[in-house]
Amino acid sequence: MQLQSAEKVQQTLNQLSNQSTVGHFEFQYARCIYRARTSGRIHGAHTFFACAESSFLDEALLALSNLIFPHPDSIGVEYLLNCAEQTPEALSSANKDALMWAIANHRGKLQLLKQSAAKIQELRDRVIAHLDKKWVKGYRV
To answer: Which DSSP category does 76 fall into?
Structure first.
């Protein structure tokens, strides 16, 4: 059982690390294009670069959203914390009390992050993931 639990925690950690890395690079690409556009270093193809910047930023926001806002069908930081809490033996090198303290500490930090990033979730729902009917002005159900 411990091997399966350890593998599950490791796979979860690997996936979250990949998601975080991709999101970070997407944000960096958007930032580079933004800086180049606003400093006048781009002298042509303005629409192309504006669209590329927007696409990279959308992907970065989606990656961040996937990491910090839970969804029943996906993994995120909260899922990882739950796995670690439910199977502390999967982290054989961790002291159980220290692990439980770290999980509680990170849950608190995650809550603070969610509060400060609420606009990201709104933006994702309104523009990136899908266009909710509630955002269309004058829409009647």
So the answer is: -
pTM: 0.74
Enumerate the domain spans of the chain: 2-135
| 90, 99 Cβ separation under 8 angstroms | no
Q: Measured between alpha carbons, how far is 18 from 138 in angstroms, rounded to an integer?
A: 40
Output the CA angle 83-111-11, nearest 5 degrees.
Answer: 25
Q: Which of 73, 69, 61, 32 is nearest to 49 (CA)?
A: 32
**Quick one: what percent of the chain has pLDDT higher than 90?**
34
The secondary structure element, H or E, covering residue 5 is helix 2-38
- For 48-103, write each residue's pLDDT tens digit: 999 999 999 989 988 888 898 877 888 889 988 888 888 887 776 778 888 899 99
* 74 and 48 Cβ atoms separated by less than 8 Å: no
Tally: H helices and E strands in the chain: 5, 0
